[in-house]
Amino acid sequence: MTVTPMMAQYLEIKAAHPDALLFYRMGDFYEMFFEDAVNAAEALDIALTKRGKHDGADIPMCGVPVHAAEGYLLTLIRKGFRVGVCEQLESPAEAKKRGSKSVVKRDVVRLVTPGTLTEDSLLEARRHNFLAAFVEVRDQAALAWVDISTGAFHVMQTTQTRLGPELARLSPSELIVSEGQIEDLRELVSDFGIPMTDLSRASFDSMSGEKRICDLFSVSALDAYGNFDRAEIAAMGAVIEYLNITQKGKLPLLQTPRQETHRGSVQIDAATRRNLELTQALSGGRAGSLISVIDHTVTAGGGRLLERRLSGPSRQLETIQNRLDAVSYAFDAKQTADTIRDQLRKVPDLDRALSRLSLDRGGPRDLAAIRNGLTEAEHIGTAGLNDAPKLLIAALKDLQGHTALMDLLDEALIAEPPLLTRDGGFIANGYDAELDEARKLRDEGRSVIATMQQDFVSKTGISTLKIKHNNVLGYFIETTSTHAEKMLSAPLNETFIHRQTTANQVRFTTVELSEMETKILNAGNRALEIEKRIYETLRQGILAQAPLINQTARALAELDLAIAMAHLARVENWCKPIVDDSRAFAIEGGRHPVVEKSLRDKGQTFIANDCDLSAEDTANIWLLTGPNMAGKSTFLRQNALIALLAQMGSFVPATSAHIGIVSQLFSRVGASDDLARGRSTFMVEMVETAAILNQADDHALVILDEIGRGTATYDGLSIAWATLEHLHDVNKSRALFATHYHEMTSLSGKLDGVDNATVAVKEWEGEVVFLHEVHKGAADRSYGVQVAQLAGLPETVIARARVVLEALEQGEREGGAAQKTLIDDLPLFSATPPPAPIQTKTSPAVDLLDTIHPDELSPREALNLIYKLKEAAKN
């Protein structure tokens, strides 16, 4: 069957991009056909129609408006699609020059994937959008990652074993792997919900990768950027190759690659990040996470820097001290810090504006963002930070040096430019004489013609001469037949050219009028073209200064974060921690920042607690006992969070804190299963515990909650017992170990590095009162029945549980078999007695109210009723 030229073009382009939904540009719409249309219509909840036939069947079709495409793109990306944006590369008029039936040239100009987004509407301002690549080359492996919306580019040596923790830290939106490795990594990567894209093995060739990197940064060798091994070069090369594929050769402006090491930051595995809810709550989303409570930054760049620091706290003492000194200075210099903070609020997102400009996806507002950001940076750079620490001094220095670019942009741009270049009107009047002339003709064409008419009247002396316009002749000079003779005679006939004679009028033109007509008719397009040309000049001027602008953006983020952390410390009453190379861990008055805020919102007070795990020679472990709901898990988590906050360079929620560098942080808190991989809750618990025992070193901090609770009592107790001994004898880690196995408290007398601690409770008239206070000592029982009563279990169940518990405890005291006691004396399968009928007691006041109809009462009757009710209540 005959295929139309347009559909043939579509099928050809689609065949080149089989894995992507094709957004095929048709005028003001992106249209999709065949299976793409079916899938897109379902994903976007839009109408599925049809256009023409192919092989005898209707062709499914759907479409979205070009002006609203970004919202649809976001939906498709979040649902796991890749989108090929196919644009018209010429106008229909240009196509017709090749023949009346010629199809407009089209091609894919960009592949939109989760890791290659740049538009603000598709991204979260305070989160990075990383694209990562992992490769194994013989006995080496590396992970490279890039955020093309900010230009950040990083690489590190790693292993497949360590890939999981790094993916948890970075949370990339997309992972590139070699086609030969995708199946080996599928199970690991699926745990994080990260889409994987496979590239050919050639894309990971280190020799080709080195050339790609050198070409990108216009250098002959990589020595100036670091000593990279073959795997690191291969990973970086694969990232660049993928960007070249998706951006169709228009590579983003990337910063020079920064080499990272595992020893540079605290090792935190995926389970620990999830349990501690650092950047995402267990319920999903940012609300309820630690970052949602501590983020007081006022710029997008500062918010992204905070997330990076929180996700990867430093292990380098000098780095930590420099950051703490910066926060401390901002804490003390409140007035100056508040002034800078107010200025920072006006700073736009320089990184993302610069990235869009580099990819030619920007617009006038991105030019204005650069101008406004650099202007505010210049003002902030003049702040009088006397005796400031070196981190702040370096940041202030990096804010300077943009005077020439700022003056250029300030002179060229209006205050509030439009979003799109095609809208025009963003170049200031007076900046370009040619543009001013075009605008005058466009906007004041009538006045220009009127001035020219007045000139002709003066030259000819004919007061009735007029300049008119019609669709046939355009602009022309018209006069009566009487005056026409004068204009046809010398010397005026050298200026005025006869065009047409009618019954009563004669029409003329001049070279000047013809030229002016052309200028007026083309003035609008000419003005827009001039603005586009100026825009491109300004864009190139900005890109030429990109490294300095990136440096300024980093400095602004650094200032914002230091001042934000100081502001947080001030309003929340946090203290500056002492951080050193020791094994100290001494917290006085520690609090959980998220729980504290939640309680404060409810008008309640958080109970602060101390924790001391300071031991130089042996492991120091607190074995924590106490009932559920007493606050054990909160206590465990808050101490882990305090350590993380200190090492990211923040003040901490405590009265005082002394923390020796924590190399690794492990957490086994909470219960969950993994049904997809056939893992029970207990299996997940054991896998996570095994990871801790196999990796934790003597500078690690470990928090464990209820190890062994997922199996039989004696099995669980034995596992918990052996785990604690291993932590003490082998790992020698600082640890908080919460348990309900009270038998384990005897270990404090056998292991030098173990102390007992408990969460205090009181019993009052058969009910348990949680005091949330942690002190040395051991709990004598778990108060499980009381907690069950608080949860609302029926009274019959609570009463039965008390009987069974008493029988079990009696069996243990008498040394007999508790189970036999239950079977013999308390038949478990006997019928549960029906609940006693509820006796309701009424009062005369209630009885009186039952006879009242409020709507029928007069004010006096209502007052009398109150007296009657008061009297009835006495009876």
Automatic annotation (TrEMBL):
Recorded hits in InterPro entries, A to Z, give: DNA_mismatch_repair_MutS (IPR005748), DNA_mismatch_repair_MutS-lik_N (IPR007695), DNA_mismatch_repair_MutS/MSH (IPR017261), DNA_mismatch_repair_MutS_C (IPR000432), DNA_mismatch_repair_MutS_clamp (IPR007861), DNA_mismatch_repair_MutS_core (IPR007696), DNA_mismatch_repair_MutS_N (IPR016151), DNA_mismatch_repair_MutS_sf (IPR036187)
Keyword ATP-binding among UniProt keywords: yes
List the molecular function annotations (GO) for this entry. ATP binding; ATP-dependent DNA damage sensor activity; damaged DNA binding; mismatched DNA binding
Name all DNA mismatch repair proteins mutS family domain ranges. Answer: 700-716
Instruction: Quote the SMART domains the UniProt record gives.
Output: MUTSac, MUTSd
Sorted alphabetically, the keyword list is: ATP-binding, DNA damage, DNA repair, DNA-binding, Nucleotide-binding
Membrane-spanning parts: none
Is Metal-binding there in the keyword field?
no
Superkingdom assignment: Bacteria
**What Gene3D superfamilies does this protein's entry cite?**
1.10.1420.10, 6.10.140.430, DNA repair protein MutS, domain I, MutS, connector domain, P-loop containing nucleotide triphosphate hydrolases
Task: Name a single GO biological process.
Answer: mismatch repair
Binding positions for ATP per the UniProt entry: G626, P627, N628, M629, A630, G631, K632, S633
Which is a Gene Ontology cellular component entry for this protein? cytosol
The record's comment on protein family reads: Belongs to the DNA mismatch repair MutS family.
Give the protein's function: This protein is involved in the repair of mismatches in DNA. It is possible that it carries out the mismatch recognition step. This protein has a weak ATPase activity.
Protein's name according to its UniProt entry: DNA mismatch repair protein MutS
Native source organism of the sequence: Ascidiaceihabitans donghaensis
State the gene name recorded for this protein. Answer: mutS
